[in-house]
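Researcher: I'm preparing a figure for a lab meeting and need a structural model of a single chain. I don't have an experimental structure, so a prediction will have to do for now. The sequence is pasted below. Please return the structure as C-alpha cells so I can convert it later.
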Amino acid sequence: MSLTTILVTLAAVAWLAQIVLGGWQIHRFNRAFDALCLRGTAVGVGRSAGRFKARVVLAIAFDQEGRVCDGFVLRGLTVFARPRPLTKLYGLLKSELIPDVLFPKDRACQTALLLAIKPKT
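Model: Understood. Here is the structure written out cell by cell.
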C-alpha cells in the first residue's frame, strides 16, 4: 500500500466520521427543539456568526403570557457541542430580555438572543 493510498483512505474516513457526527449533532438539536416547541406557544431561535470562533445557537420558548418557559443554548466549535438548558432566562418577560444585561461579556450569546427575540416580518 502506497503512502498516497493511505492518505486518501484516512481523508475518506475522516470525512465519513464528520458526516456521521454532524448528523448525530443535528439529531440532538432537533430532539431538543421539538421538546421546546411542545412547551411553549411561541419559539424564537437565533444564532451567532463566526468562522473560527465558537458559534452559538439559542432557542427560547414563550408561554401565553410572554414569559420564557424553556430554552437551551448550543455552543461550540465541534460536533460534540450539545444543547444545554438556559435556566437563567426562565420566567422573564420578552421585554425583559436585554442581551447586553443578560450576557455582558458574551457577544455571541448577545447576538443569538437578539435574533431569537426579534419580531418576525
